[in-house]
Amino acid sequence: MDEVRPQFEVEVDGEPAHRGAHHVQSLERGLAVIKAFHADAAELTLSDVARATGLTRAAARRFLLTLADLGYVRTDGKYFSLTARVLELGYSYLSSMTLPEVAQPHLEHLSAGVHESSSVSVLEGTDIVYVARVAVSRIMTVSINVGTRFPAYATSMGHVLLAGLSKAELEAFFLVARLDRLTDRTVTAPDRLRTELRNVAEQGWAMVDQELEEGLRSVAAPIHNRRGRVVAAVNLSTHASRTTAESVETDLVPPLLEAARAIEADLAVGAPDRVHG
User: Fold this and answer.
1) How far apart are the C-alpha atoms of 2 and 275, rounded to whole Å?
2) SS3 letters for 186-206?
3) What ranges in the chain are assigned the alpha helix state H?
4) Is the dihedral of CA 169, 174, 175, 180 positive or negative?
5) CB 169 within 8 A of CB 152
6) How confident is the model over 102-113, as pLDDT tens digits?
7) DSSP H or E run through 104
8) In angstroms, how far apart are the furthest CA atoms of the chain?
């Protein structure tokens, strides 16, 4: 399967600007109901779901009860929550991917050699999504697992993935991305971020120093497909208290680049026409 390029939709009056005649609005709304639930909103009332999705209470109720009939939602009569069955939706994608299984042994070797956590992610919309990970120690306040998402603009893997976009794709990203300040170091000025991405593209790797979370320093390198397109990123993350930016560049970047090249080589041999699917 060819690479799936990231898609960014510009909204006009709250609605995506481009929709084909094939668009099934009920499917879109059903997915919106599922996405209304997240870590900070694990249990929602009918009114909560209606408010989060912009649906009427009657419509939200129909979608919730249909999802409950299908086993994706449970309710006690007042509160609704997702069931573990929703994992099947993501598993169908992940189980078809070549990248995680190819990358995992390389991440294990990389982490064992430098004693730092390593991950692989892909770009989805304006976020990165983790598809493989080896955790040596927990250095963030939140747990990171396969499927975890972070805003691309504040992460080293995000910088690598954004730097690999075409000019048109990158401009589409800036049209829809919210560059919120997550720490005192987060780059939120679009022009400054564009300059950083140009530097990343030139040097072939990216370092992000405490932009996503205080104390977190990470470095990432691109993973290319056989046609040279950046389709994923691999990183190493460390705590700023035990490393410096200079030591990260000296000690972590070389083995990281070596791991990226090894993953690319295995992807090319094992599945030349597939990027991560």
Assistant:
1) 6
2) CCCCHHHHHHHHHHHHHHCCE
3) 25-35, 46-53, 57-70, 87-94, 99-114, 156-163, 167-176, 190-203, 245-247, 253-270
4) positive
5) no
6) 899 999 999 999
7) helix 99-114
8) 59
Q: In terms of Cα–Cα distance, which of 97, 162, 156, 90 is closest to 126? A: 162
CB contact at 8 A, 141 and 170: no
pLDDT above 90: percentage of residues in the chain: 61
| Residue pair 145/161 in contact by the 8 Å Cβ criterion | no
What are the distances in angstroms from CA 108 to CA 142, 149, 156, 198? 21, 21, 19, 30
Amino acid sitting at position 215: G
165-221: pLDDT as tens digits: 989 899 999 999 999 999 999 999 999 999 999 999 999 999 999 989 988 999 999
Tokens of 269: 């041999």
Q: Which residue has the tokens 């990470």?
A: 218
Q: For all residues of the chain together, what is the average pLDDT?
A: 86
Percent helix, strand, coil in the chain (nearest 5)? 45, 20, 35
CB 64 within 8 Å of CB 71: no
